[in-house]
Amino acid sequence: MILLIKEKIKSFSSSEGFRLFMRHKRGVAGLILLSFMLFVALTADFIAPKRFDEVDPSSRLLPPSTEHVFGTDQLGRDIFSRIVYGARIALWVGLLVVVIEAGIGVPLGLIAGYYGGSVDKFISAITDMLWAFPPIILALAIVTILGPGLTNVVIAVSIVSWAPYTRIVRAKTQSIMSREFITAARAVGESSFSTMFRYVLPNTLASVIVLATLTIPSAILYTTALSFLGFGAQPPTPDWGAMLNEGKDYIFKAPWCSIFPGLFITLTALSFNLLGDALRDVLDPKLRLG
Amino acid sequence: MPEVLLDVRNLQICYETSRGCVRAVDGVSLEVYRGETFCLVGETGCGKSTLALAIPRLLPPNARLLNGEIIFKGKNLLTASEIELQKIRGREIAMIFQNPMTSLNPVHRVGFQVAEVPATHFRISWREALVTAVKQLGRVGIPDPDLRSRDYPHTFSGGMKQRSMIAMMTICKPSLLIADEPTTALDVTIQAQILKLLHELKIEYGLTLLLITHNFGIVAEVCDRVGVMYAGKIVEVADVREIFESPQHPYTKGLIECVVARRKSKSRLNQIPGAPPSLLSPPSGCRFHPRCTYVTHKCLSEEPRLVGVREGHLVACHNHERVR
User: Fold this and answer.
1) What is the predicted ipTM?
2) At what angle do helices A180-187 and B158-170 cross, to 10 degrees?
3) Closest to B210 (Cα-Cα) out of B38, B30, B34
4) Which of B103, B117, B152 should be substituted to probe chain A, the one whose Cβ sees the most A Cβ atoms within 10 Å?
5) What are the residues of chain A with a beta carbon less than 8 Å away from any beta carbon of chain B?
6) Do B199 and B207 touch, CB atoms closer than 8 A?
7) CATH code 1.10.3720.10 for A17-287
8) Which of B95, B273, B107 is nearest to B169 (CA)?
9) pLDDT tier, B264 (very low <50, low <70, confident <90, very high otherwise)
10) CA–CA dist A167, A157 (Å, integer)
11) Which residues of chain A neighbour B63 with C-beta distances below 8 Å?
12) A27 near A281, Cβ under 8 Å?
């Protein structure tokens, strides 16, 4: 078993895709940054010196020091500990949003591209309409209806931003439909459903993976924005957006309350963007230079 | 009298385009007998492939079936439901395509793709399907089928891809195998091997082969009967021997004269003057008249019908007696 895994790792690390990726310096930087965030999120219980909701009225708004690395907030909570726990929320929310978006967008794109005609027109019209709305306004409207809370924010952000998946998968499907192996699949008696999901879908996955890594940062940014506006995670949840919101009242007196959450939001979004760019370069041979 | 396996009656198919309706197949009737190899010959764009795709109902969405019947084993395929068709495709009627490079799915292993076919048509386990797939790949001449079935299509050569396609299409032992220019994209030595393989499988499984080609060399080699198509119509049907010995249609005659023979001198190759007509607005009367050397006034106004000139020999030409 271990030998098999070793073999797999060996064949993976000598594959062309892996080598191309390793040459992509910014991509590697993104991967390292992201791995760091993941590590922090997974081991939060061991890294954080305090609990995220441990209030200490005697040490309010303390500047960074050896005891409180990132300082403390208006309730005397350790900002470093809150950020470490917040990484869990940010990554989990980003992942969840992307999975829901792809879950809605990919099948719709497949159906639109596969059947064409009026089905395609109907789905494309909805996609275009959604695309025309400013997403954050629409998300705000949905959260107002559903009520505040992290789950509702995830739902709202997913609903407003699945359109790119539909568009990309639809275009990919259309180009794949004209290939002969699709006719061949139908010629051996595959059903439409089976052709769509077993023959067309795997051919679109490279684009979907790239799109997913590129939409995680915007998903994180939207959810933190909604939390910042007070619609998302409710106190005392250590959501980075909510922390920014709480910190903004003390921005001149205690800037560390908002600087550190902001910095981590930026770094996380950046790491996904760098990784996404690199994956696009590696997975799309047409974009490869030289 | 041999049994009729496939009976196409007065089939009309058009493609809807922005410039109007292109009649790719215009009133084609033909019969294919069980166990024979029937060749459909004609120039590019004369509707051969459209006719082939119409039989298992695999036409692209912009194609419209205007008229006609396709009767296979006593069942009209044009009125069959999609579910019925899915059961027939691959099991009863299978189809091999022109370009083996693009007819295998690049993201699945070859063995997977071949095993898919028995797995969809028979109640067998995936493991059994894989075993039959490997066996079939071996039968069509893939060396080391056990190992190669785990490879992806891009590691296969053109000939091996076409062999894999043949394995995929014959694994359920269908009654009718339609091969749409199966060797056009391959080099000559591989062509001969693929034709030999098709012939062997035909005998072994009792297949009926509907072979579409523009190559008269292939016709002479493997066919029993030949249908010649021109501009969406069948102009001549006959036994292979008859076609070569006494072609009755000027177009058939021209095609046969175009075959590149080994010549001593560097004489010019024969050709049929002109080009196939646009199917948007085909010529009046006989569609071949602008290119025909036997043309008469009747040809300009009146469309010739397919008539029997001898037992099993049909021709659509007003002046076939004069063609020598």
Assistant:
1) 0.82
2) 20
3) B38
4) B103
5) 116-117, 179-181, 183-192, 194, 198-199, 202-203, 205
6) no
7) yes
8) B95
9) low
10) 18
11) none
12) yes
Residue of B39, B37, B75, B31 lying closest to B57 (CA atoms): B75
Share of chain A above pLDDT 70, in %: 97
Cα B74 to Cα B3, B5, B57, B77, B206: the distances in Å are 11, 8, 16, 9, 19
B117 with A186: Cβ contact below 8 A? no
Separation CA A279–CA A289 (nearest Å): 14
- For residue B149, what is the enclosing H or E element? none
Peptide bond between residue A236 and the one before it cis (omega within 30 degrees of 0)? yes
List CB contacts (< 8 A) between B107 and chain A.
Answer: 202-203, 205
Render pLDDT for A95-118 as a digit per residue (tens, 0 to 9).
999 999 999 999 999 999 999 889
Global pTM reads 0.81
Residues of B in contact with A187 (CB under 8 A): 56, 58, 89-90, 94-95, 97, 169
Give the Cα separation of A261 and A242 in Å (integer): 9
Residue from the list A189, A192, A202 with its beta carbon closest to the beta carbon of B120: A189
Chain B residue whose CA is closest to A183: B58
pLDDT tens for the 290 residues of chain A, in order: 677 777 777 777 777 778 888 888 888 999 999 999 999 999 988 888 888 888 888 888 888 888 888 888 888 889 999 999 999 999 999 999 999 999 999 999 999 999 988 999 999 999 999 988 888 899 999 999 999 888 999 999 999 989 999 999 999 999 998 888 998 998 888 898 999 998 999 999 888 988 998 899 989 889 989 988 888 888 788 889 889 888 888 889 889 989 999 999 999 999 999 998 888 888 776 655 43
Half-sphere exposure (Cβ direction) of A273: Cα atoms closer than 13 Å: 11
Which of A184, A190, A203 lies closest to B103 in CB terms? A184
**Interface residue B53 vs chain A (CB under 8 A):** yes
Using the beta-carbon criterion (under 8 Å), do A188 and B165 form an inter-chain contact?
A: no
The answer to whether the Cβ–Cβ distance between A180 and B102 falls below 8 Å is yes
Q: How do the domains of chain A map onto residue ranges?
A: 17-287
**Rounded to an integer, what distance in angstroms lies between the CA atom of residue B38 and that of residue B239?**
9
**Long-range contact set of residues B235-239: C-beta below 8 Å, sequence gap at least 24:** B235/B288, B235/B306, B235/B315, B235/B316, B235/B317, B236/B313, B236/B314, B236/B315, B236/B316, B236/B317, B237/B30, B237/B306, B237/B312, B237/B313, B237/B314, B237/B315, B238/B310, B238/B312, B238/B313, B238/B314, B238/B315, B239/B312, B239/B313
Instruction: Check CB contact of B89 with chain A, cutoff 8 Å.
Output: yes
CB contact under 8 A, B120 and A188: yes
- Residues composing chain B: 324
Task: Give me the total of CB pairs closer than 8 Å, taking one residue from chain A and one from chain B.
Answer: 68
Helix H or strand E segment including A241: helix A240-247
Nearest to B103 among A117, A181, A194 (CB): A181
Q: Point out the residue among B98, B104, B117 whose CB comes nearest to the CB of A181.
A: B104
Q: Give the orientation angle of helix A79-115 with respect to helix A240-247, to 10 degrees.
A: 130
Which chain B residues are closer than 8 Å to A192 by Cβ?
82
